[in-house]
Amino acid sequence: METIYIVLFLVYAADHAKRVKTAKLVAALDIGFFGAVFAATTFFIGGLDMKIVVIGLICACLSVFMYGSPLAAVRRVIASRSVEYMPFFLSFFLFLNGGVWATYAILDRDVFLGVPNGIGCFLGGIQLVIYAVYRNSKVGCQSQGTHEASYDASTSLLSSYAGRHGQNDVSTHV
């Protein structure tokens, strides 16, 4: 899936500099890092148990980075007081995924699954709390003087009472 996404980005990205930068990052991180880990565990680490521990630690660290990456948008969310740059479903499914895998890891007593996914569940929870705090903030171009510019579709996503009060009806905002 990641490969398809990257190829589509490289084909359709408007900025040539971004395409070159992305291609370099893919080569360095996806190919170079994997090659270095493969070479190190194959040639420099003896014993299957030690190889499993090293690869498990690397994978655990990368999982924590993956779960924490949407937190990069938190600074912008707090500064703008808007969740426009933090998609709800990404935060929700990171929380759900981390929770399910952490539960499985507890049942299976697997520390390499439990620690990063427990941290991921916690980080996803932080993102959901931040989303809940800033979900009702309105963004848009207020200088036009129109109400539809400030309508935030994500507001109705979490509001259980939105349908009863007409907030869910886009026609009331247009």
Automatic annotation (TrEMBL):
One Pfam family hit: MtN3_slv
TM annotation in the entry: 25-46, 52-73, 85-107, 113-134
Domain of life from the UniProt record: Eukaryota
InterPro entries referenced in this protein's UniProt entry, alphabetically: SWEET, SWEET_rpt
One GO molecular-function entry: sugar transmembrane transporter activity
Subcellular location: Cell membrane
Keywords: Cell membrane, Membrane, Repeat, Sugar transport, Transmembrane, Transmembrane helix, Transport
Entry GO CC: plasma membrane
Membrane topology label: Multi-pass membrane protein
Protein family: Belongs to the SWEET sugar transporter family.
Record-given protein name: Protein RUPTURED POLLEN GRAIN 1
Record organism: Aegilops tauschii subsp. strangulata (Goatgrass)
Origin organism lineage: Eukaryota, Viridiplantae, Streptophyta, Embryophyta, Tracheophyta
